[in-house]
Every structure is written in C-alpha cells, then in structure tokens.
Amino acid sequence: MNEQFTKAFSEIIREQITRKNEVKVEGVGSFQFRHQKQFQKQFKNGRVVMMPPKDTITFVPE
Amino acid sequence: MIIDKEKLISLLVDKTSLEQEQVEEQLSELVSRIQQAAQEGKSFEIEGFGTFRMEDDNLQFEPSNTLETEINNKYAGMKPIELIGAFKQPESEEIPDMMESEEDEKRAWAFDEESAKDKTSETEEKAKKPEEEIVASDQEETSSSEEPEESEIPKETEEQTLKDTPSEEEKAPIPEEEAKENEEAEKIEEKQPVTTGSREKVNKQPPKRASRSKPKGDPIGRFLTVAVILIAIGVGGWAIYDFGISGTQNAKPNNQVSSDQPAQKQMAKQQVSNKEITSGKNADNKQSSGTGKNSEPEQNLKVTKQGEGSSKSKASPKQNENDTYGLHGTVNHSISSGYTIVVHSLRSQKKAENNRQRLQDEGFRAMIQTAEVNGSLHYRVGIGQFPTVGAAEQAVKKLPEPYKSNHFIKRIKQQ
User: Distance from B28 to chain A by nearest Cα, in Å?
Assistant: First the structure.
C-alpha cells in the first residue's frame, strides 16, 4: 500500500462526495454526502444564534 | 449515483499510474488494514482524509479538517449569527455569587446616580425656561399668538422628566440596602436584573441608552424654542419699528403686497392732484398724502402755493378711497395695479368683448386683459378692481353663481 494509492483514494472519495455521490468501499462501509440546513440554536445561557448551513461527509459502517 | 467497487477501481486506475490488478490489490490491503485496526480497537488514520476508529462495536470515521473544509467550501467562512431580537433572559435558576453581584450592583448604582444627576440638573434648567418665555411673551404683544404654544411644550417635557427622576431614585437606594441585607437579594434581582454575566450587561444597555437619549433630545427642543423666541423678537421689533416709530408709510395694506407698484400708483395720483404744486419736495408729499392728512398742510405751508395744494391733496385721498377700487361701476384707468376676478378666458376677442359688454351692462366693472397661455393669446374678462387678493376674495362671495365657483384672481397688468 503505497502513498500514491492512498492519496488517490482520498482524492476520489472527496471528489465523488462533493458531487453528492455515495462511495461504497466493500468491507468497510460507505461514504455519503449530507447537507445541513441553517438552524437556530439556543445556548444554555439564553444566547440565540443562527447556525450557518454546511455540507458534511458521513460514514455509514457496514 | 452510487460508486460501487468496480467504479471505484476504474476511477483509481485513471487517477494513478497503476494497473488495475495493482489497484485491486492495494484496495484490498487498505480494507484489511482498516478492519484489522478496528478489531484491535486501534484507530487507523489516512493522512489528509480522516481517521477510522471503533466506537461501541461500530466503525466510525472522523473526517480530517482539510477534508471537512474542502467538502464544505460552499459555505466556508460563514459564522453563526447572533439573533438579538430572540434573546431571552435566562431563567434565574443559578443564584449568582454574592460578592460578584454586589460589585455589579454598586457599579449600576453609580451609573444610575450619574444619570439621575443629569436629569435633575436638566429639570432645573427647564424650570427656569418657562419663566423666561413668559417674560418674553409679555414684552411682545404683537407676536403673542405664537408664544403660548411654545411655552407649553417645555412644561410637558418637564413633567416627563419629573416622572422619570423619582423612578430612578426609587431604584437607586435599593442596592445600598441590599449590601446590608443579603436576604433580599433574590427579590431585587427580579426587579433589577443586574447579574453576573457580562452579556447581560450588554443586554441591559439598550434600555439605558433609551433613557439617556430622552434628555439628549430635549436640548434640541430647547434650542428650537430659543430660536423661535429670537425670531419672534426680531419680527416684533421689525413690526414695532415699521408701524409704531418710523411711520405711517406702510400702514396701508396694499403696500405690503407690492412695494414698488403702489409707489408708482401714488406717483400717478400725485401727478393728477399736485400738478399745480411746484414742489422740490415731491418725495415728502408723496409719503404724506397717502395717509397722513395732518402733516400734509404743514408741509404745504412751506411750499409756496399753500391753499390750493392743501385742499387738493386733501381731496385726492378721499377719491382714492371711494372710487379707485371696487366691484361695480366703471373701470378706473388711473389704477395701474391691483387684482381682478377673471370670470372668462377666451381666445376670441369678439366673444370676450361681448362678455365684457354684458357684464358691464349688469353693473360690473369689467375689463379685458390679454395673456399668452401655451403660445396662444387669451382674452381674459375680469370684473372689479381690488387692492389685495383678500379684498377680491371677499368680493367673490357676493358674485352670482356661475362666477362664484368658476373664476380666478389675477393681478391687473399694466397696459
């Protein structure tokens, strides 16, 4: 397992995730794209903030 | 779209310079190493990608920072936005430390004291204000109509500030007592939510500012009142100077409307009446003949021909008053200024002449004025001659209906 391969592997997963594709890696699990909408959040001390939206990668194990 | 193993391998082959077999080999090695690490409970990190680790018999993946930001690049740099409007006071579950609350409330007390001082000093100033205004209004009888309204305004504001100050003073002593009696701390907290949190102070500021801005607004009002008083004094002084001291010249109402034309008109009258008077002092005669009958003979005494001059100049004002202006009668051509009520505006001179003749027959003082409207010549049939617009409007009320509602008042042109 050389460095070139791991680099290519992580790059491909990143590219496919940003294209909103799901990547299945047999024996490990699948990587998925998830979008989090903006939402209001209240801290315990009463401060209320609007959290920005964000895109995330989630991993679902097999 | 789902990228399965086949597609993943083909993509990897494209990406790397490796053969497909090598790629498959590498991938299976990677998977097996991840599984091995997971079984042993170790974490397996791929640099620039993330970390796999076992948590609760489940394989978990935590993306690295670079991967996270690269995926989230669309929303990169967005930060949480504070929603001030939705801010809610925290429930007073947590009882603040006594020492801290004391300190805070002392500070608050000092702050209140300052603002209270400001307010009291301002109220004192305001208490003086109305007196001055009353004095001012006494001095000037002419402009007294403006004064009462102005003097009322500060009183109201004074009342407001007076209302405000006691409430501040009521609040103010509380913290002192509190320092002595720790038992009441909770009650006072309910009244005065000055607690430990620094953010709460931030939240407390807006109402403070609101109460402070009120006295700031008042100086503007004071300046306004002062300005109005000064203007009133100026106007009053001017009025006194014009009507009371320097004379009778401007007492006639029509002179206020137009200054130069009446002068010409008077000159015309003067020429009619004083033809025989050889006067190097024509100017003096003009001034006095309009209104001052008493001064007239004295000045004429100095002139060589006394008797004739005085008698004729006495007669002329009467003529002016009786005959010059009016709605009925014949047109006085010696008048070169004034206003008329225009009841017809026609393009045909013939029709205009007919209308004028008809109005003349009805007893109105009718005349035709020409005016160029939008490039075409109009013949305006006007009735009456009036010194002022006000007089013309008075006369309009007596007119028969078609003219009463459909007319306009126009300055008589010199022709």
Answer: 9
Name which of B293, B157, B324, B299 is nearest B225 in CA terms: B157
Q: Are B293 and B317 in contact (CB under 8 A)?
A: yes
CA distance B327 to B359: 11
Chain A residues closer than 8 Å to B78 by CB: 52-54
**Do residue A27 and residue B32 have CB atoms under 8 angstroms apart?**
yes
Q: Do A5 and B16 touch (CB under 8 A)?
A: yes
Give the containing element (helix H, strand E) for B39: helix B20-40
The amino acid sitting at A23 is V
Tokens matching residue B92 = 């007073």
Provide the token pair at B49: 């990608």
User: What are the Cα distances from residue B210, in Å, to B110, B254, B340?
Assistant: 18, 53, 58
ipTM summary value: 0.89
| DSSP annotation string for A1-62 | --HHHHHHHHHHHHHHHHTT-EEEETTTEEEEEEEE--EEEE-TTS-EEEEPPEEEEEEEE-
Residues A20/B32, Cβ–Cβ less than 8 Å: no
Each residue's pLDDT tens digit, B163-189: 444 444 444 444 444 444 444 444 444
Measured between CA atoms, the residue of chain B closest to residue A45 is B90
With 0.80 as the threshold, say if the pTM is over it.
Answer: no
Q: CB of B297 within 8 A of CB of B310?
A: yes
DSSP per-residue codes, B71-131: HTGGGTT--PEE-STT--PPPTTSPPPHHHHHHHHHHHHHHHHHHHHHHHHHHHHHHHHHH
pLDDT of residue B228: 93
What residues of B are in contact with residue A42 (Cβ under 8 Å)? 88
Task: Give tens-digit pLDDT for B266-325.
Answer: 554 445 444 444 444 444 444 444 444 444 444 444 444 444 444 444 444 444 445 577
| Chain A residue at shortest CA distance from B82 | A49
A14 near B71, Cβ under 8 Å? yes
Cα B20 to Cα B7, B8, B26, B29, B54: the distances in Å are: 12, 11, 10, 14, 30
Distance CA B337, CA B34 (A): 109
Q: Cα torsion at A62, B1, B5, B9 (round to 10°)?
A: -140
The chain A residue lying nearest B64, using CA atoms, is A57
- CA angle at residue A23 from A11 to A4, to 5 degrees? 30
Asked if B71's CB is within 8 angstroms of A14's CB, the reply is: yes
